[in-house]
Write a structure and sequence with these properties.
There is one protein chain. With 420 residues, the chain is mostly helical. It has one domain (20-413). The chain contains 16 helices and no strands. It has helices at residues 9-13, 18-44, 52-63, 81-94, 98-122, 127-136, 141-147, 155-170, 180-196, 205-219, 231-253, 271-289, 292-303, 312-326, 340-362, 368-413. Helix 4 crosses helix 5 (98-122), helix 13 (292-303) packs across helix 15 (340-362) and helix 15 (340-362) packs antiparallel against helix 16 (368-413). The protein is globular. The chain starts with 8 loop residues before the first helix and ends in a 7-residue tail after the last helix.
């Protein structure tokens, strides 16, 4: 995503007025406090979960203090070394105290939210756009299931590292160092590799970045060099480098072929499977993101009679969101928590749509009434997702609390010296 109005050196060096500094602080502080508020019930009622936590804890107990095996699921075909390293480090620090794990989850959610706000600003988005993106992301439906578990999900760190890699992409050089673009590519590639070491689906960034580069080329027909040294070219190179390194490390250290694992073999590209998968994922998208529909209709209906160029920013975001859905269509399972990277894109999209809808209203044109109507409908639909979040959070807390009570009840009935 390219800047719409790059800052000049004079603008960068000019001190901001006090009121502007306070406004800039607010667009970061409020989303951070909201992310903390989302996680506060989980910190105050911290228990290990019923499903993945037992397995992960058993692996941590086996490996911490031992050989620290970073590929403990060899038979599955998965390769997530940083996922396991991060979990082992938390176990070494907190042991069997789940509150420590959830505190780390909270810090990761806050950092990811702040990174998203900063990314929108550095990419040329308005303060309102960045602020709204930061508010919407921690309230997205997939957030609860991802962050209310003790890092049994790989998505939180995956999204954190991907956003960090994009921040590196849009960073500006402090001097005219000709090596700076290559430094950016190298650092972004390292962050993408860390994301892939948490969740292998990160490799979908390769076709995403290529699509972004092609989009740049289509919108800049005066420059027919498809691999001109642009931000999108740099990110494409970073994703390809990270992908190559991922497969190299996998070939060196993984013990099972991708297609031979009892987990990675669950991809099915047959049409009788794909059609129901489309229906399932459509249901999840309506369940968590229906509020985007009226805003998309408003902006696209207003822009199409004028020029496709005005929709350029939306094209980048929609490519991102579509890729994270298409990636999972052939996968046997359809779980909403997989959509956390999609949620980051949807938060940026929603921020842009609402910002433009507000701008349309302020112009007092014939579209003003339509903008108010679409904002109202979107607000009602978004409030429904908040009720979903509340229900999901209460359910997660109740199930984990009941699971812990069951563990204590079983422990009390076991003979002395038994291992539970």
């Amino acid at each position: 995503m390219q800047r719409s109005h790059p800052q000049t050196e004079a603008e960068v060096n000019t001190p901001a007025p006090p009121r502007e500094k306070q406004s800039n602080l607010g667009i970061f502080l409020v989303p951070a406090l909201l992310a903390l508020l989302v996680m506060l019930p989980r910190i105050l009622d911290a228990h290990f979960g019923l499903l993945d936590d037992g397995y992960n804890l058993s692996k941590a107990i086996e490996n911490v203090g031992g050989d620290w095996n970073l590929v403990p699921q060899a038979e599955s075909g998965r390769f997530r070394p940083f996922y396991w390293l991060f979990y082992y480090l938390q176990f070494a620090a907190f042991g069997l105290r789940p509150a420590g794990f959830f505190l780390v989850n909270t810090l990761v959610l806050i950092a990811t939210t702040l990174g998203l706000v900063l990314l929108v600003r550095r990419a040329g988005g308005s303060p309102l756009h960045a602020f709204l993106s930061g508010l919407i992301f921690p309230l997205s439906v997939p957030v609860i299931e991802n962050y209310y578990t003790t890092f049994s999900k790989g998505e939180p760190l995956q999204v954190f590292f991907i956003i960090a890699s994009l921040l590196v992409l849009v960073s500006q050089p402090g001097s005219g160092n000709p090596r700076f673009p290559w430094i950016k590519v190298s650092l972004a590639s390292a962050l993408i590799l860390l994301a892939a070491f948490n969740k292998e689906t990160t490799l979908v960034l390769i076709p995403v970045s290529l699509a972004w580069r092609v989009l740049d080329w289509l919108f800049n027909r005066a420059d027919r060099k498809i691999f001109k040294a642009t931000l999108t070219t740099q990110y494409f190179l970073a994703t390809v480098l990270a992908g190559g390194l991922f497969f190299l490390f996998r070939a060196l250290f993984a013990q099972t072929q991708i297609s031979g694992g009892n987990y990675t073999a669950f991809y099915d590209f047959n049409l009788p499977f794909l059609i129901p998968a489309v229906i399932r994922w459509t249901g999840w998208l309506i369940h968590g993101f229906a509020y985007l529909a009226p805003l998309v209709l408003l902006i696209f209906a207003r822009a199409l009679p004028r020029s496709w160029a005005s929709l350029r920013i939306y094209a980048y975001i929609l490519i991102w969101m579509a890729a994270w859905v298409v990636m999972f269509l052939p996968w046997r399972f359809a779980q909403q928590y997989y959509l956390l990277p999609f949620s980051a894109g949807s938060a940026v999209l929603a921020g842009a749509l609402v910002s433009e809808a507000v701008s349309i209203y302020r112009q007092k044109t014939t579209w003003a009434a339509a903008s108010i109507g679409c904002l109202a409908i979107a607000g009602v639909l978004f409030s429904v997702t908040l009720l979903t979040n509340l229900t999901n959070a209460r359910m997660q807390l109740a199930v984990d609390r009941a699971n812990w009570e069951m563990v204590l009840a079983v422990r009390d009935k076991l003979p002395s010296g038994s291992k539970l």
